[in-house]
Amino acid sequence: MNINQTSIKDVLSWNEFLKKTSEEKSYPPKKIKLYNRLIAHTNNFFAIAAIGAFTPGYLMIVAKELIPSFSLIKDENLYELKWFVEVLSKSVEDAYDRQTIQFEHGMCACVGGLDRAHIHLMSVNNNVSNDIIKNSINKALLNRRSGISSIEINGYKLENIHDIKTFLDSGDSKSYKLNGRQLSYEDINNNLDIKNWPRAARPHVKKGGHYVYFKTSSNNSSFFTNRNFQTQLGREIVYEIEIKTNHKFKSLTDEILKKNTYANIWQWQNYSFSENMSKTMNDLIPSLEKIKSDNNSNKYNFKTLKKKN
Known about the structure:
By secondary structure, this protein is an alpha+beta fold. The protein has a domain at 5-128 and 184-233 and 271-304: HIT family, subunit A (2-Layer Sandwich). The protein is built from 10 helices and 11 strands. A hairpin with a 2-residue loop joins strand 6 and strand 7 (156-158). It is globular. The two termini are 22 Å apart.
């Protein structure tokens, strides 16, 4: 899949997804392109098969309105958003017999260009424990040296993450001064009221702040934080969960890492997993059709694209 973002201003354009997906001669499309991945939509939101699908059933729910985070949506659209997230999560769970994890990086500008509010749905093994999830969160935070702002050595302050990692990994803690403290799950699990997502982040966002919402099936492994992390933290956490619980995926990543020790397989820019994106669109058709019998389906004008031969 060739995605040239430098020539595209809005890579999450609702109009482009509707137009390009509807124009396909077959649905789901035989070849995945940038704008032919539309799966379903409501009055104010739409869902697409997401790039970087290292887990089955990976979706992104996007706002049709051009806003940078869901904390800024109109209050009257909040129930529609939460309904759409929940019914699509249930569709993924029914199709794959896996549980879903929801996460949003508010104000992240993580796709480049004009960034629309979007939330990710990724699946993990049904039997994954809270301890595994929290350990995976801590591993991702450690990988990023989250909470460490800089190191000082010989009168120089170094803020680049690669420089920080180099010195921290050296084990010679006497040669530099560390600014900050490594964060863990316990530092971020109650910064914002998770039951009040996304509105709890609104005052923070209006001041220009960022946030990360990460929701599992248990509040004991979820978090909603106003800390400013680098993008794709949620994807990296799910990646860490998958390599701990999915032997087939672990073997695949081992083969990739043999060729490139520094590969970040969880980064969608590097590994699109386009075959899984196409499979997701096919796999979800039956469970998406069931949503039409939901009482709120007509209320929110829920629609899917019809399958074409």
